[in-house]
């Protein structure tokens, strides 16, 4: 999130992602809701449309129905990376074969960025 705030990353989400985060925080960590809302209002989000039912249906062959809308929105947005903590559902071979982008955890993304910076410094 800090990298997005600095303009080094462009976070792309669909409205369903915000809804899911809010539901999960409300259920698991309600004290974090004000922080989430602050991030929601201040970061330079690129909000893409929620996927169509047809796009969601195409993803249901490779991922659980609850995650199909998120995967479908990501496919439509064509990101360079898809970042998620849900490695159980999104880090399966059939999901990777279905998408044209890499799927990373936040930690994996940070390691990738760190490696790119170190490589750039070796010039």
- Could you give a short account of the major beta sheet? 2 strands, parallel
Structural class per helix/strand content? mainly alpha
Query: Which whole number gives the mean pLDDT?
Result: 95
CATH class: Alpha Beta
Which CATH architecture is right? 3-Layer(aba) Sandwich
Low-confidence stretches: none
Helix amount, in percent? 55-70%
SSE pattern, N- to C-terminal: HEHHEHHEHHEH
Rough shape? Answer: globular
- What count of domains describes the coordinates? 1
Number of helices: 8
Portion in beta strands: 5-15%
CATH topology (fold) name? Rossmann fold
Q: What gap, in angstroms, lies between the N and C termini?
A: 28 Å
Number of strands: 4
Say what oligomer this is.
single chain
Can you walk me through this structure?
With 123 residues, the protein is mainly α. It has one domain: Rossmann fold (3-Layer(aba) Sandwich). 58% of the residues lie in helices and 8% in strands. It contains 8 helices and 4 strands. The protein has a two-stranded parallel sheet with strand order 1-2. The protein has a two-stranded parallel sheet with strand order 3-4. α4 packs across α5 (68-77). The longest helix has 16 residues, at 106-121. The mean pLDDT is 95.
């Amino acid at each position: 999130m800090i990298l997005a705030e600095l303009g080094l990353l462009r976070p792309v989400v669909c409205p369903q992602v915000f809804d899911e985060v809010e539901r999960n925080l409300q259920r698991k960590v309600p004290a974090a809701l004000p922080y989430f809302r602050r991030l929601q209002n201040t970061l330079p989000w690129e909000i893409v449309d929620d996927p169509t039912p047809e796009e969601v249906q195409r993803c249901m062959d490779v991922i659980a129905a609850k995650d199909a809308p998120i995967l479908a929105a990501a496919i439509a947005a064509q990101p360079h990376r898809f970042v998620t903590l849900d490695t159980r559902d999104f880090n399966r071979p059939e999901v990777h074969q279905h998408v044209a982008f890499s799927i990373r955890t936040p930690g994996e993304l940070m390691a990738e960025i760190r490696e790119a910076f170190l490589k750039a410094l070796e010039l």
